[in-house]
């Protein structure tokens, strides 16, 4: 009962904020999207990169201690895509629509707040390491799958490295490796700004859910189950081999149980890669997270 109450206490605040964002979007209608445009831009370009940088550059983050967890994140992301490939073939789905969302879970909008609630402030840095692993896999292998057979602009293969998020990751890793310490007032200011993006990301996720359609419910339901289930299966296998410390083990299982990221829908729209089907995967995946996330937390907190 204590474990159940703890899990409920972890997931309820997250889903309440998402529900408030959805309710706001329903009340405001189409204006909600316009309201959130500037907020999302600030969050994506400034707040989230600062969250990542401050977590990686902080004194409590040790790259060596989190290297195994980072490796686990890469294996779970790649392995989920590998397991999803035959499922796509079996049901006749386009691999470019189905597989990339299986490789990129909602470790930003949902994973970071859940990690903080489940493991305390010290849980943020390891969660960012997993977030980094997931981004590296998606923006290399995942985007490569989507772009297969398309004409690509020169230099686009490396364009993702110039994004604020990737620059923040690279700078944070560099600071962690060189053990460079920023002046405490400056670091605290950057950290406070970064942490502001956590509730904003959840609220924004709720607002975006209003535009997601259930038109392609079949692929949505299959994707909603395959993404966390594949992740959990790989995490169980890794657990037998890697023997991570208790806190990192918990982080691994939470990461594995997360649903597909909303960002996958935005990328599908950008590439015109069946965005309605990817939208269904995202929406149903985040709804079924009410079942899979507690399962991941139970496995990780045992």
Question: How helical, in percent, are the residues?
Answer: over 70%
Low-confidence runs? none
Strand content: under 5%
Give the second-level CATH assignment, the architecture: Up-down Bundle
CATH class: Mainly Alpha
Based on Cα principal axes, name the global outline: globular
Q: Please, how many domains?
A: 1
The total count of helices amounts to: 13
Number of strands: 0
Tell me, rounded to a whole number, the average pLDDT. 85
Q: Could you name the CATH topology? A: Na+/H+ antiporter like fold
Radius of gyration equals: 18 Å
Q: Major sheet: size, sense and barrel closure?
A: none
Mind explaining what this structure looks like?
The protein has a single domain, classed as Na+/H+ antiporter like fold, CATH 1.20.1530.20. With 302 residues, the protein is mostly helical. The radius of gyration is 18 Å and the shape is globular. Helix content is 80%, strand content 0%.
What can be said about this structure in brief?
With 302 residues, the protein is mainly alpha-helical.
Task: Produce the secondary structure layout.
Blueprint: H1 2-28, H2 31-57, H3 63-91, H4 95-103, H5 107-119, H6 124-147, H7 164-178, H8 184-195, H9 197-209, H10 217-242, H11 246-256, H12 263-271, H13 275-301
Helix pairs in contact: 1-5, 1-9, 1-13, 2-7, 2-8, 2-9, 3-4, 3-6, 3-10, 3-11, 4-6, 4-10, 5-6, 5-9, 5-11, 10-11, 10-13, 11-13, 12-13
